Protein backbone atom coordinates (compact mmCIF):
# COMPACT_ATOMS: atom_id res chain seq x y z
CA UNK A 1 0.00 0.00 0.00
CA UNK A 2 1.30 3.47 -0.84
CA UNK A 3 0.41 7.08 -0.25
CA UNK A 4 -1.40 8.91 -3.06
CA UNK A 5 -0.42 12.58 -3.38
CA UNK A 6 -1.27 14.49 -6.53
CA UNK A 7 0.54 17.54 -7.88
CA UNK A 8 -1.03 19.81 -10.46
CA UNK A 9 0.59 22.92 -11.92
CA UNK A 10 -1.47 25.90 -13.09
CA UNK A 11 0.37 28.34 -15.38
CA UNK A 12 -0.93 31.79 -16.38
CA UNK A 13 0.68 34.52 -18.45
CA UNK A 14 0.57 36.66 -21.53
CA UNK A 15 -1.23 39.92 -22.04
CA UNK A 16 1.28 41.69 -24.31
CA UNK A 17 3.56 40.44 -27.11
CA UNK A 18 6.71 39.69 -25.08
CA UNK A 19 4.70 38.04 -22.30
CA UNK A 20 2.75 35.99 -24.84
CA UNK A 21 6.00 34.69 -26.35
CA UNK A 22 7.35 33.66 -22.95
CA UNK A 23 4.06 32.00 -22.05
CA UNK A 24 4.03 30.00 -25.30
CA UNK A 25 7.62 28.94 -24.62
CA UNK A 26 6.56 27.70 -21.16
CA UNK A 27 3.68 25.75 -22.71
CA UNK A 28 6.03 24.20 -25.26
CA UNK A 29 8.49 23.24 -22.50
CA UNK A 30 5.66 21.72 -20.43
CA UNK A 31 4.60 19.64 -23.47
CA UNK A 32 8.20 18.45 -23.91
CA UNK A 33 8.38 17.43 -20.26
CA UNK A 34 4.86 16.12 -19.60
CA UNK A 35 3.40 15.33 -23.05
CA UNK A 36 -0.27 14.33 -22.72
CA UNK A 37 -0.55 15.59 -19.13
CA UNK A 38 -0.53 19.21 -20.40
CA UNK A 39 -3.82 20.88 -21.29
CA UNK A 40 -4.50 23.06 -24.28
CA UNK A 41 -4.15 26.80 -23.72
CA UNK A 42 -7.28 28.45 -22.37
CA UNK A 43 -7.85 32.12 -23.22
CA UNK A 44 -8.97 34.36 -20.37
CA UNK A 45 -11.92 36.70 -20.79
CA UNK A 46 -9.93 39.92 -20.52
CA UNK A 47 -6.46 41.49 -20.62
CA UNK A 48 -5.05 38.79 -22.91
CA UNK A 49 -4.16 36.33 -20.15
CA UNK A 50 -3.87 32.66 -21.02
CA UNK A 51 -3.60 29.55 -18.87
CA UNK A 52 -2.83 25.86 -19.05
CA UNK A 53 -2.40 23.17 -16.49
CA UNK A 54 -0.28 20.08 -15.96
CA UNK A 55 -2.28 17.14 -14.62
CA UNK A 56 -0.96 14.87 -11.87
CA UNK A 57 1.06 11.81 -12.90
CA UNK A 58 -1.09 9.50 -10.74
CA UNK A 59 1.82 7.66 -9.14
CA UNK A 60 2.17 6.91 -5.45
CA UNK A 61 4.75 8.90 -3.49
CA UNK A 62 8.20 7.38 -3.51
CA UNK A 63 7.57 5.27 -6.59
CA UNK A 64 10.00 5.63 -9.50
CA UNK A 65 7.40 7.31 -11.71
CA UNK A 66 6.53 9.82 -8.99
CA UNK A 67 10.20 10.67 -8.46
CA UNK A 68 10.68 11.01 -12.23
CA UNK A 69 7.85 13.57 -12.46
CA UNK A 70 9.11 15.43 -9.36
CA UNK A 71 12.29 16.09 -11.37
CA UNK A 72 10.27 17.18 -14.41
CA UNK A 73 8.28 19.65 -12.27
CA UNK A 74 11.55 21.15 -11.03
CA UNK A 75 12.71 21.52 -14.65
CA UNK A 76 9.54 23.41 -15.55
CA UNK A 77 9.89 25.67 -12.47
CA UNK A 78 13.47 26.50 -13.44
CA UNK A 79 12.50 27.21 -17.04
CA UNK A 80 9.77 29.63 -15.96
CA UNK A 81 11.98 31.20 -13.26
CA UNK A 82 14.54 32.08 -15.93
CA UNK A 83 11.93 34.28 -17.64
CA UNK A 84 12.03 36.62 -14.66
CA UNK A 85 12.74 40.30 -15.25
CA UNK A 86 15.40 42.24 -13.35
CA UNK A 87 12.84 43.58 -10.85
CA UNK A 88 11.81 40.04 -9.85
CA UNK A 89 8.51 40.06 -11.70
CA UNK A 90 7.71 37.36 -14.21
CA UNK A 91 5.29 37.50 -17.16
CA UNK A 92 4.52 33.81 -16.59
CA UNK A 93 3.19 32.84 -13.18
CA UNK A 94 2.47 29.38 -11.81
CA UNK A 95 1.49 27.45 -8.74
CA UNK A 96 2.03 23.78 -7.88
CA UNK A 97 -0.80 22.47 -5.77
CA UNK A 98 -0.38 19.20 -3.87
CA UNK A 99 -3.42 17.29 -2.64
CA UNK A 100 -3.85 13.83 -1.22
CA UNK A 101 -6.36 11.07 -0.58
CA UNK A 102 -7.28 12.62 2.78
CA UNK A 103 -8.19 15.95 1.12
CA UNK A 104 -5.13 17.69 2.53
CA UNK A 105 -4.13 20.54 0.21
CA UNK A 106 -1.08 22.78 0.11
CA UNK A 107 0.95 24.92 -2.23
CA UNK A 108 4.09 22.89 -2.89
CA UNK A 109 6.09 25.49 -4.80
CA UNK A 110 6.45 28.74 -2.90
CA UNK A 111 7.53 31.94 -4.62
CA UNK A 112 11.28 32.16 -4.90
CA UNK A 113 13.03 35.39 -5.75
CA UNK A 114 16.00 34.80 -8.05
CA UNK A 115 17.42 38.33 -7.85
CA UNK A 116 20.80 38.57 -6.24
List descriptors.
Alpha-Beta Plaits, alpha+beta, 116 residues, 2 helices, 31% helix
Plain-language structure description:
With 116 residues, the protein is an alpha+beta fold. The protein has a single domain (6-107), classed as 2-Layer Sandwich (Alpha-Beta Plaits), CATH 3.30.70. It has 2 helices and 5 strands, in the order βαββαββ. The chain has helices spanning 17-34, 64-81, and strands at residues 5-14, 42-43, 49-54, 92-100, 105-107. It has a 5-stranded antiparallel sheet with strand order 2-3-1-4-5, with helices on one face. Strand 4 and strand 5 form a beta hairpin.
- Share in β-strands: 25-35%
Number of β-strand runs: 5
Shape: elongated
CATH topology: Alpha-Beta Plaits
Helicity, as a percent range? 25-40%
* Annotation field: number of helices: 2
Low-confidence runs: none
Tell me which CATH architecture applies here: 2-Layer Sandwich
Number of domains: 1
| Biggest sheet details | 5 strands, antiparallel
Helix and strand string, N-terminal first? EHEEHEE
Beginning-to-end CA distance, first to last residue: 44 Å
Q: Which CATH top level class fits?
A: Alpha Beta
Widest β-sheet, arrangement of strands? 2-3-1-4-5
Summed over residues and divided by their number, the pLDDT gives a mean of 90
Radius of gyration: 15 Å
Secondary-structure class: alpha+beta
Amino acid sequence: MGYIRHNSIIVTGGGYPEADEKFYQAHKKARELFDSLVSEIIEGLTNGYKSFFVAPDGSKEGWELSNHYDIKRQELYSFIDLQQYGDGSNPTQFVDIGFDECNEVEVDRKKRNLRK
